[in-house]
Amino acid sequence: MMENLQTGRTRWGDDATPAAMRLLVVEDDPTMSALLVRGLERVGYVVDAVDNGPDALWSVFENGYDAVVLDAMIPPPDGFEVCRRMREEGRWEPVLLVTARDAVPDRVRGLDAGADDYLLKPFTFAELYARLRAVTRRHPHARPALVQIGDLSLDPVSRVVRRGGTRIALSPREFALLAAFLSRPGEVLSPSDLLDDVWDLALDGPELVGAYVRYLRDKVDRPFARQNIQEIPEIGAYRFDPEG
Hints:
The structure is a single chain. By secondary structure, the chain is of the alpha/beta class. It is built from nine helices and eleven strands. The protein has helices at residues 3-7, 30-42, 53-63, 79-88, 104-112, 125-135, 172-183, 191-199, 206-220; strands at residues 22-26, 46-50, 67-71, 95-99, 117-120, 147-149, 152-155, 160-163, 166-168, 229-232, 237-240. Helix 7 (172-183) crosses helix 9 (206-220). The N and C termini lie far apart (48 Å).
């Protein structure tokens, strides 16, 4: 796994050097933690490191970071719970969740906890660095307006979704997926389009997108006898049909 960190062969152009961004690395394996810290500092990040959930939460709430590299399986609260508590308290630092658990339910659990991206072990430093660049690329936006199509509304600020007079509870990732559909009504969207909109980087493609589309339909369409969120099986794509 981390040959690039150990050999020092990694070379980065000037455009790859972060502008003194501050990261928190949360990893309970001392060897792995040292490798991550050394490699990230080598390319210009300022890095703090902790090895358990309570210290991770204290560090985030006390200091604030440009991003958090968070191992899922740390002493409790684990990485999933750390991320969930961050989001619950309104802390939106980008979180890159690192884990060896590659089953779809585990990935869904991490993303639903509020993680911005999911990195599977073993990985190369080049991939880690690319994903960090992706999750820290965002910029603040003006307050987004309420989105409404028919009787379905989505408030990006309060994160409330309603159909008619009924409030619909969505996970963070389901909310982001619905927002992607509503921003492009009627447009045919491939799994790659949705991965780009919702997850920044392609994780495991169609399987993950398909699972989330099913979750979303079960909450937004089926209880209301609607078919707005449609699959186009012949091309493996999706669309939100305002007339559905």
